[in-house]
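Reopening this one. Same input as before:
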Amino acid sequence: MKTNFLTKEGYEDLVQQLNEFETTKLPAVLERLSEAKAMGDLSENFEYKSALEDKDFIQSRINEIEELLENVEIIEEDKRKKGDVVDFGSKVTVKIEDDKEYDVIIVGSGEAKVNDASQLEISPESPLGVAVFGKKSGETVKMRLATGRKEVKIIKVK
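Same output, byte for byte:
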């Protein structure tokens, strides 16, 4: 089974999300489902179909989080590489093939997300993560994509 690497913050966030889904969101949607069933004919019951879709989404997310937490390894702050080497928690500025610069944060497998257009969180398993993880500031590496390879310059590592 694959080990899922998570930062302490990422682990705590997933545990909190799981708790919220199981104690608040799932019971609320099950109540909506029960109320919609009581309305009668389910074939044209929009409330029932909507609640059923919401239940499926919530249950899917619960399963996904439980799977991530099943075989987790917390990346301890003191074990992260310091300096200009890209590691978990690193804030990295990269330039992809003479395009603009991007700021990314290296996070664990289940934590990657886009907070807004200016802050991307990527895992070491992503194409960009594979290319830069363990490399140093100033290095130029190749990122492998389905459409070919792109050159990536590591501008800065914090």
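So the earlier flakiness isn't reproducible anymore. For the record, The chain has a mean pLDDT of 87.
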